[in-house]
Amino acid sequence: MPGVGDWDHSDPFVIEVVATERDIDSYRHVNNAVYLTWLERCAWAHSAAVGLPEAECLRLERGMAVLRIELDYLAAARAGDRVEIANWIARCDGRLRATRRFQIRRAADRATLLRGTIDYVCLNLATGRPARMPQSFAERYRATWPAGEPG
Question: Which domains are present in the chain?
């Protein structure tokens, strides 16, 4: 088990954001929907970093669409907090499905705010139906989550 303030696993892909007043809800912390937006931003940045930006997905008429989301909210972020969003590809069958694991932590104290898992399915963007991944997806969405650990 990782120590306090550590990433859950080595070699995460990480982006940083700063929580703004627009992100805050009536309870005076970052709204749950904002966390989802940050996860999506991290996943797209990671896809672009491995050579699959949105434009390439559109060209190939294939995309990874959310099938299932599981999130554990552990602590709150507040306006002005610098937040680190990490993700790993936990599984990719090279055909139809992939899973990303996420961890969000506050930079100042490295406290984990959220852990999550998102399962994706490859879609044909023209039809909206599930479709086999292009070879470039299978190659670039390789699992980086440690072998033998549940993704």
Answer: 13-140 (3.10.129.10)
Buried b / exposed e along 128-139 (16+ C-beta atoms within 10 A) = eeebebbeebbe
Contact status, residue 44 vs residue 87, Cβ threshold 8 Å? no
Residue 145 pLDDT: 76
Residues 6 or more apart in contact with residue 48 via CB below 8 angstroms: 54
In degrees, to the nearest 5, what angle opens at C-alpha 150 toward C-alphas 44 and 98? 35
pLDDT < 50 stretches in the chain: 1, 3-4
61: Cβ–Cβ under 8 A, 6 or more apart, which residues? 124, 125, 126
Spatial separation of the C-alpha atoms in residues 122 and 99, rounded to whole Å:
11
Say what the pTM is.
Answer: 0.92
CA distance 42 to 150: 21
> Please, which residues have CB within 8 angstroms of residue 89's CB and are 6 or more apart in sequence?
98, 99, 100, 141, 142, 143, 144, 145
Tokens found for residue 118: 């998102």
Residue for token pair 């080595």: 10
